[in-house]
Amino acid sequence: MTPPGPLSNRGHNVDASKVACFYNSQAYWRKDLAKVTPEELKPALQFCSHLIYGFIGLDDDDYKAKSLDKDLDTEKGKNLFRTFTDLKRLNPNIKFLLSVGGFQEKEKHEKWLKVLEKTDRRGKFVTTLTKLVKDYGFDGADLAWQFPVVKEKKEKSTLGSIWSTIKHTVTGSHTDDKEKEHKEQFTALVRELGAALRGNNHILTLTVMPHVNDKAYFDGSNIKDFVEHIHLMTYDYRTPWRTEEQADYTSPTQFVGSRNPEQNIEATVKWWLEQKIPAQKLLIAIPTFGRTWKLTSDSGKGGNPPLKADGPGKAGPYLDEKGTMAYYEICPTLTTSGPSSSSILLRKVPDTTNRLGTYAFRQDDKLKGIWVSYEDPDSANKKAYYAKLKGLGGVAIMDLSLDDFKGSCDTNHRNFPITYAAKLGL
């Protein structure tokens, strides 16, 4: 990939490509400075072509599409569905979509397969989802289907001279004895839902979640005409839960050589293009969060991945999730100076290759050692530019609530700097 220049719009019309912006509605319930309501999304509207509400789910018994949090989503509570779609008044050109699936019910993948297996079950799901879309003023739906995830593969160790087995702790890694049937049935669902939505002048998009076996479940040639575009969740190739003992790049654009030949954006995009999906229908995801690992005395001092680690890093001050930090938690701690004894600062190491990703770390001092792989405005801009060079449809931001939505780190106090930078890269 030819390295792009400074952060800019590359001298062309930035409105030509899509920026699909996800909003995790559970951010409404976060505490203090981490709380993000639809009101906080207003500054991002100028950057987004699509705004996607995540996520609703599937009834355990009758396979209807349903809210997973009625106290939040519906008029029985905060009515966030309607508050969200009311933002359309500020920018009527944005398409507002309701996403079903995602990561909210990852422990219950069996029901997501069962609904596919019977025509009447699919019909009930289609009917209830299209009704929710219509009733709350959405412009369409997004399917982020909960397929079983695959286990982490063994990798020839760069930490030693033998083949190392990476510790597997992936909850819900299962085999599917009916992959072929489920692939055909999911294709039928996409066609049925796409046709039903189209009848109401609504659209359908797909989201391919991380660690799903694309080859097993997606029939590109038979679904492409029923979806506006496909969001490829091109992040979390490595995570502190899947590779507890090895900190590594989570969202590399390319890997040089034989290491992780399939765990990068280039390989993912290549496979989807081989399925005869038009490039303009593919959007690559840019995460607004980092994945963190705890470092130990065996991790060394250089910080260069892959390196030995001891599971997820300590939770950040606002998001309060082990192994994950929002960009607004990462950016205030960054320094470009050398390693120090600070218990707060992280040494930033930019990606000069434009291939692997940015990371930051703090050496182990018994309790405070941490390593984080993350995106910043510069890396987001470069990934968007990569999408442009490949002729792709654009990018997907996952998600707005973890970007620096208050503009606290941006030198110009710009809200949503990662989203803004991605927009300029297209």
From TrEMBL:
- Where the record annotates domain RGS, the positions are 67-136
What is an example of a Pfam family matching this protein?
Glyco_hydro_18
* Keyword Nucleotidyltransferase tagged: no
Report the principal subcellular site. Answer: secreted
Q: Which PROSITE patterns match?
A: GH18_2, RGS
Q: Which UniProt keywords apply?
A: Disulfide bond, Glycoprotein, Secreted, Signal
Q: Which GO terms describe its molecular function?
A: chitin binding; chitinase activity
Location in or out of the cell: Secreted
Species name for this entry? Answer: Parthenolecanium corni
Q: Which PANTHER family match?
A: CHITINASE (PTHR11177), CHITINASE-LIKE PROTEIN IDGF1-RELATED (PTHR11177:SF235)
Task: Kindly give the Gene3D superfamilies that the UniProt entry links to this protein.
Answer: 3.10.50.10, Glycosidases (3.20.20.80)
Domain GH18 per the UniProt entry, residue ranges: 17-426
Q: Which family does it belong to?
A: Belongs to the glycosyl hydrolase 18 family. IDGF subfamily.
| Name used for this protein in its record | Chitinase
Cross-referenced SMART domains: Glyco_18
Q: What are the recorded Gene Ontology BP terms? A: carbohydrate metabolic process; chitin catabolic process
